[in-house]
Amino acid sequence: MGVRYKIILAYDGTNFAGFQRQPNTRTVEGELTKVVNMMAKKPQPPLQVYGSGRTDAGVHALGQVVHFDFPFDIEADNMRKGLNSMLAVDMEVLRVEKVSSTFHARYDVSGKRYMYRIDLGEFRNPFKRNYCGHWKFPFDIEKIELALGDLIGEHDFTSFVASGSTTRSNVRTIYEATVKQNKDDNELIFEFYGNGFLYNQIRIMVGVLIEIGSGTRPVHDIQRLYELGDRRNARRTVSASGLYLKHVYYEGEDPEHPTKLPKYQR
Q: Which CATH architecture has domain 3-99?
């Protein structure tokens, strides 16, 4: 088995077709797998890498977690330097540590934190187009703050999951949901921390919240959407470019919310 390494990985998702490995297309998992095998001198069978979860095409990560088993025992910082010397410039290993052979980047997750950035400029900024969503219309941030309270707790998020999701349950728990306006950068920044998120859930939630802030939905419309359980009523899905996986939590890192996800919810 060798040595199991846990890495914290940041990447610019602009030129990736998502995290999950796919044939004939560039993915984060595919690029990292290739480099890990090069470092291991191309063993047979090839080494596999395991991420904490998938991110979609165009979605970024500030703290994706990946583990893999490596045939040689290399100091953690040398592993970090070795990987970064071969990875493309839109990927960077921030930290490496040796972990127990029982650690699993996906199955041991206790929670995740995502950030969503919205550029508020009248015109779409060409230098932000790959890193922010865009909203040019007036809004009331106090209405958004009130609506965020309706997301806290355990709910059935069926109205907030994209078609094509294969999860057995749409019930999730959100521990924290915040918004702040960064006037220096003219951005609205959301953060969501929960025990797990459904396919496109955050992008759909942000779409609903920005409509609430703009007055095209009632402040507590999220409660109605829970009852309807129908994706069509949520309507808008904001762009992938503004979404960032910020942090992945594991048991012991987050004593306030230590419960692991049931396997069917991952």
A: 2-Layer Sandwich (3.30)
111-251 is classed CATH 3.30.70.660: yes
User: What are 193's strand-pairing partners?
Assistant: 113, 176
* Residue 15: HSE in the Cβ half-sphere, 13 Å Cα cutoff: 5
Domain-wise residue ranges, the chain: 3-99, 111-251
Asked if residue 114 belongs to a known ligand binding site, the reply is: yes
Contact in structure between 21 and 37 (CB atoms under 8 Å): no
- Contact between 110 and 250 (Cβ < 8 Å): yes
Decide whether 3-99 matches 111-251 in CATH topology: yes
Calpha distance 247→83 (Å, rounded): 21
Question: Is the entire prediction scored with pTM above 0.90?
Answer: yes
Contact 118, 239 (CB under 8 A): no
Q: How far is CA 71 from the centre of its chain?
A: 30
pLDDT in tens, 114-137: 999 999 999 999 999 999 999 999
**Active site residues per annotation:** 56
* pLDDT tens digits, 73-93: 999 999 999 999 999 999 999
